[in-house]
Amino acid sequence: MPHDGRARTGFPVPEASEAGAAVTGSPPTAPQAATSDRALVFAGAALTGLYTTGAGGDELQLLESAGGVSPEYRLPQRLSLSGGSAAAQAFRADRPLWLNAAALASYPEGAPTPPRARTASLGALPLASGGTRLGCLVVVGASADGFDAGQQRFLERYADAVACVLPTEESRPPGASPLSHALRGMRVGSFVLVPDTGLIEADEALLELVGITPDDFDGKADTLLAHALPEDMSALMSVLEPSLHALGRRELEFRVRRPTGEVRWLSLSCRVLAGTADEPGQLLGVVTATQVKSRSADDVSRIQWLTAALDDAVTVGDVGRVALTALREPLGADRVALADVRDDRLMVTLLDPPKPDAWPELWRAQWRSEWPDAPVSALPTLQLALRDGRMDLWPAGTALEPGLAGIGPGGLAVLPLPAKGSVAGVCVVGWDRPHEFIPEERSLLTATAALVGQALKRAHAHDAEQELATMLQRSLLPRRLPELPGGIAVARYLPARRGLQVGGDWYDVIALSEDRVALVIGDVQGHSAGAATIMGQMRTAVRAYAVEGHPPDVVVSHANRLLVGMETDLFATCCYVELDMEEGTTLLVRAGHLSPLLRHPDGGTEEVQVEGGPPLGILADAEFPLTAVALTPGTVLALVTDGLVEAADLPLDAGMARTRAALAAADPVDPARMADALLGDIGRREDDVALLLLRYDGMKTKPIRAGWVVWRLPDAVMHARRFTARTLRRWNVQAAADAVLLVVSELVTNALVHTQGSVRLDLVLRGNRVRISVSDSSPRAPAKPVIVDWESTGGRGLLLVEAVSDASGTVPVAGGKQVWSEITVPASDPVAANARL
């Protein structure tokens, strides 16, 4: 049940005095406002209206209004987008429009209606999400002076929150309006305190921030204060027990300890409401959560906070965000830019606000890249500051070069960021309105620049280390996977989220021939530079042994003996799969690794029972038995490492079951999305993760094969030519016979003359190409003649083969080599569709 504070404390939401309104710009009254609207009342909003674009797209329609139950102000139900209302103008310009009472008088269309509209102010904030304009948020204030800077920032955040929830109607709780749901999503709590009685009305958002359930709250301020840290209690009491003559706004950062033990930083902003003869004075305030400790009222506390925050900043981006928090809001700045100095060039790392139209025209051509005319010499103002290493403050109206014009028309601060005798970067802070640089502010800027410069230097070293680790990892893994006939392979790798982000997991897809492919996945013990080095050596060794043509068990055995002979104490696990893309038969070898997973075409999954051997690098004479599995088209083969299926809080069996469930639920039409679905929540990562998927589709065009063992007889070449001629006639490709017979003669002759042992001739017809392969037992590649002239008596055979072939080459195979040639069948002699061996 929602808790209504008035039911327990017995007093209504306070009415603000005229004096309070004059000081803070807030509405003079807040008659019985709902607790969900109290934060808007504090922000100076007497009425809030949500306009959305109509069905025709030519007008704005009032979808909802909130704030103040009495009809003191009213807004029109419809506003033309082409009209002269403030909402329409803000919508068209796509930027907020703030009007005090005097400026609002020039916008009669769409203004709030009487009786007191002439003393009202107005804010119009466009709403957009994902590049789509959704409408406009109109905020009416009761003060003729308009909204102050703090209120404007809060209402701009509120407009962004409304724009986020407006398109997602199905995600809102039943009956929740976009205005109230957006305010709740901002996690803004509010309260009304009567200091004389100690009673406080707190909404559910505030109770949640502190860590109190509504049923456990007794309506007493002491209950809330009990959660504050003792060292912050004195400052809290000075704010919550103010003199009722101090009617201005008060702000404070403090910490609370939640029931879970978590320490949370909260930001408090409140103001005193003078009481009447019948009612005591009251305190109206709002509380929000902050990501890091924000600044205090005095400069010493600000520097202490900045030092602590920068100590936790790791990357350059972290340093930029802390610098932005330390400078923009405390100084009331409108723009903050942070840039690195690299080789006399400026590289922008942070721009706030992140909108191109907020920065000079010259910056837009290279938005979020280098500054225009990136050399430092192109910006004399920055060049002077960087050369002297001294802060420069430029007052309003200073004429600056085009690259800086418009950043700070009301004042510009250029802060070099010193670090260990050099300048790590530069920070530029700009104001739109005239800004006076007081001495205390100058000291704060100088101290901030020194701390940010040192942190930026450390962050650069960290980023360089991580970039080096990333480059090392990427260089050791395949850049891209080969295109496979009859299947699609995809892979994913994620480094560990602790320590050096480089590990020992690897994967590879090796095209052994036009119809055979090897898939391998492995994991070297640990995740360090040493593990990555061993991983690279093992991946290279496995690929080399596989390309030589060894069967899977021999490939893994060779890799095992290689790792045993290395000077390392690390071991590795491995799963090797050789797949015949034509027939769908697979041979699997497992060395201490997880078993592969299969997803069948009907959606069922299984863990393949592969008889395994020990991990690589333990026993030199270890045996690695083969396991054969047949795949049908539509089957998905998944190879994973233990980082995906095992963690401190995830047993291996549970992880494998979860991965199988994700594999069954994923759509195999897109293997890339299937791999992403198997990764799941990438945030939970104690170890590096490798994933290799292959969707086997089967070859649409199966090759036709014929083979002949060449006996070492005087007429062996003649028999090889006769076998070839018969085969070509049977395949109905006689038009290519002359070229094919010439290649067969030359390759068989070379094998018989220059090698010993067995010789084999293989013919393959795939589509409109004939492949001739001659295998022998010599590992030496055939040598081409260096000089060929009229007196040469040999060496012309390979030149003839190259001349008549569309492609040719030599590949090593187990126990020797294979010399091959491919010849295209002329179009006039199409391949018979029903050709048979």
From TrEMBL:
It catalyses: O-phospho-L-seryl-[protein] + H2O = L-seryl-[protein] + phosphate. This is protein-serine/threonine phosphatase. Its EC number is 3.1.3.16. SUPFAM superfamilies: ATPase domain of HSP90 chaperone/DNA topoisomerase II/histidine kinase (SSF55874), GAF domain-like (SSF55781), PP2C-like (SSF81606), PYP-like sensor domain (PAS domain) (SSF55785). Pfam families: GAF_2, HATPase_c_2, PAS_3, SpoIIE. The keyword Transferase applies. It comes from Streptomyces chartreusis. Residues 1-33 are annotated as: Disordered. Residues 175-247 form the PAS domain. InterPro entries: Bact_Sigma-Reg (IPR052016), GAF (IPR003018), GAF-like_dom_sf (IPR029016), HATPase_C_sf (IPR036890), HATPase_dom (IPR003594), PAS (IPR000014), PAS-like_dom_sf (IPR035965), PAS_fold_3 (IPR013655). The keyword Transferase applies.
